[in-house]
Amino acid sequence: MKNGSLKIFSGSSNPKLAERISHVLGQPLGKIKLSRFKSGEHYCHFEETIRNCDVFIVQTFSHPINEHFVELLVMIDAAKRASARTINLVVPYYGYSRQERKAAPREPISAKMVADVLTTAGAHRVVTIDLHAPAIQGFFNIPVDHLTALDMISDYIIKKNIVNPIVVSPDAGRATTAENLANILNAPFAMMIKKRPEHNESVITHVIGEVEGRTPIIIEDLIDTGTTIINVVEGLKDRGSNDIYICATHPVFSGPALQRLDHPNIKEVIITDSIAIPENHSSRFTVLSVAHLLADAIQIIKQGGSLSSLFKYGGV
User: Which residues contact 157 (CB under 8 A, 6 or more apart)?
Assistant: First the structure.
């Protein structure tokens, strides 16, 4: 798709994904200069005209998340002052999404704060994938196109012809997604019950469902430190399961997560490129690209149509 009024620019968080999206759309990435002053302040300069253009900025909230967030705000402001017709944010992983409610007194709802800041800065639309909580869409007063990687993950798993599978939700929050995957695979469903003594820590207390002799497929929206996933894996093995498949859209991978997930009882870790990971990762990892999904969404937004056409097994 070649259209002079459509411009795609990449932030510094995941330029390879932005390049893949542009390649699918058949046009080059827009020229932009991103740099820092000596003080650490961000600088942005669009090196081509964007007046009366529909600008799409690709920026995922990966580590260092706060740097990428501020960089995105600077890019939005520069685009607004350069008279872009619309400013559309392609944010594959929406950071701060786990802070979508108050779980204790005097806590922030940071996911709402981020939505307010992006909107106030000048964004007209947000395109994202597999929000931690779908209700975050309601935090925005601008359109939010909430896509899902479940279709591509499901298609990949189907092709593997896994023997005696069981889909496992690592907690109640993923139960609906796990149930959808179980229905797609025509497989049984199980759920782990856990408690969290601290952030990024969990203890498995119960397993609802029979996993003995079966091959678990764990489905998550994101993997951060990997601690929870390893606890689930070991809990399943203790109950007699076969080696386990892990599926997640967003490889946040904080700290030693990559090393933790290179676990002898994990058969394969299936993730997407919504966040860039080191290329020297273990062969245990399979990375599926969301470039076609995002490119198709951009094309529909620009030309008109229904985004529901992108959902083979139903939306999120």
Answer: 181, 185, 217, 245, 247, 270
